[in-house]
Amino acid sequence: MDGGEQGLLRTEPVPEEGEDVAATISATETLSEEEREELRRELAKVEEEIQTLSQVLAAKEKHLAEIKRKLGINSLQELKQNIAKGWQDVTATSARSKLLAAESELLCLLY
Questions:
Q1: 20 to 30 A from 89, CA-CA: which of 37, 40, 70, 95?
Q2: In whole angstroms, how far apart are CA 72 and each of 25, 63, 66, 68, 80?
Q3: Region entry Disordered: which residue ranges (predicted)?
Q4: Burial (0-12, 13-18, 19+ Cβ within 10 Å), 83
Q5: For 37-81, how does the pLDDT look when each residue is reduced to its tens digit (9 = 90+)?
Q6: Four-CA torsion 19, 24, 25, 31, nearest 10 degrees
């Protein structure tokens, strides 16, 4: 690699997920103890919100599975429906394309 290509590469570290925010701040940007404490409180709040959302999502997924069970819908039936819908979309697109091609050909003949 020559010297011109060297400038294209980033040499500063990229913070990993979950890494302490304070550890990623440069030495010239130090946080006061009050700012660090505020960040810790915000971190705890966001983690709690994520936990709550995960629990709500799990409850909704359970409810969805129960509704599907009551309706007699299983994975195989869903797969069949998805394939049928996909095939319908493909044939509709194909028929529309043929119709547009015929219309274009007809217009060429008229002019």
A1: 70
A2: 55, 14, 10, 6, 14
A3: 1-40
A4: exposed
A5: 999 999 999 999 999 999 999 999 999 999 988 988 888 888 888
A6: 20
